[in-house]
Amino acid sequence: MIIVFGGTTEGRKAAEVLEQAGKPFLYSTKTGAQDLALHHGVALSGGMTVEAMTACCRAHGVALIVDAAHPFAEALHLNIMLAAHELGVPVVRYERLYPPRDADLVWCADFGDAVAQLERHHVGRLLALTGVNTIAKLRPYWQHHDACWFRILDRGSSLATAVGQGFPPARLAYYEHDDTAALISRLRPEAIITKESGISGGFEEKVRAARAAGVQVFVVMRPPLPDVGCQVLTVNGPRGLRRSVERLLPAFFPLHTGLTTGTCATAAAVAATHYMLTGETPASVDVRLPDGETVGVEVGYEPPVTSAAAIAQPATLSATAYCVKDFSDDPDVTRGARIDARVAVATDRREGIRFLQGDGVGRVTLPGLGIAVGEPAINATPRRCITESLQALTDAPLDVTISVAGGRQLAEKTFNPRVGVVDGISIIGTSGIVTPLSNDAFVQSISREMEVARAMGCTAIGLASGKRGEEALLAAMPSLRVIHYGNFVGQALARAHALGFGRVVLGIMIGKAVKLAEGHLDTHSHKVTMNRQFLVSVAREAGIADAATAIGGITMARELWGLMPPPFFEALRRRCMEHCRRVFPTGDLDIIIHNA
Description:
alpha/beta; Rossmann fold; CbiD-like; 21% strand
């Protein structure tokens, strides 16, 4: 089980990532006010002490905590870390993306420092965009300055908080009435103060509006996470979150993601450049994906042609690093391939990045691929990612040679020869991450079949895991339109609900039924195993004596048919129905458990 502490944009994104697994998880907010539709997640509301948090995690068997709370929720962060330390479970901190700290802004270590800075700069008219809960923290300033306004949410609880802290209601402004630019124009402050709330917190929009009006910006820096000794991994986007969960709880997602060759090449180039400039060889480097998210990628190094001490003679400076391609659960001809990057300071020009063809990387011989004929087959997005990453490290002109061990042989298994790419593979990737299509493609095919059935006027539909299940349903209802869901019973039911089917008949084999009854809406045999202890609890619910003895010796779920009386299967069916109703909440739903 995973628990997410959210209530933020990052919390919403975390929930969306975990929903892809088709398994239950917990989503906790303080107020329960966030508008978030959960299919597999279970919502919890109310603040928790460390003790309550620890008890909740133990009760639900939590093995991983995702901290997606607001960066300034210092008390919550501390409680999460203390609870994780007590439980011995890891934490994934879902951090926001932050722009670089601009020296033109006034940076404040905390709210006490902010008050001192405002007074030092003789600010008389201030618009505070730091939120209602910071009114008390800025009291030493606004008690002595009548021209100070706070913008708060337009809801009763926020107004009550502001008034309760003694702030004059006449000097409150509301989010819904004015955007930042309009508010600045109306109030004409000398300065604004905001928190370092990141891109998702509207930080850049506030700064732009203030600068356009010639208004000074004061920023309270985000506080560091508390360090209490527990294991913490930090991510700043959905791909990094999923990869962290895949690493820490390998069985949670039915299929795993991988890295594109473009991301691997970027990681190798970044590592080589860092090695060349500093002599340092970290085991992993951060790589910026095309959408701005960063992920950590493991790398290795070759002895450099020259040492880092040769920085005084940059014309001879070079280094080589490599990345072994991390791969998804989809078939991939490059899985496990080693991708090298040799980076050298160029001697024939003063600036820019030039890409050279290394062994195993193809060469373009025909137009139409978006790469000039004669250039190495490194596609546009990887070129951009490598260029931006290296230019962030140095202004020196660089030659980057990408190589792939065995690339010539690998290319024979690709379409490269048909499109005029010779001598090796292409370095590709538009997102930087390989999402396993085995999952997505099958779910999409389910959706397409349902859309066709709905367009033909069907209001009822049958769902079966495969051919044998289909035959069992048709034996009972010959006219039923039956679609196969494989292991994706949850996603199939959710799509049926979205398309407006009024009735669904779900046929499910006993082996998958025992997994569904426990809450697993993805029933892949490699990802979910039969839980005998759970079956014992179902049998006891059905009033069956000596359930533990009867069930303890079985090795296959189908053996239950000869062991259990009808009340057991009715209890199992009720459990299945409860979980199916999470994703198919309205309409008629029949569940038929069969053993064929």
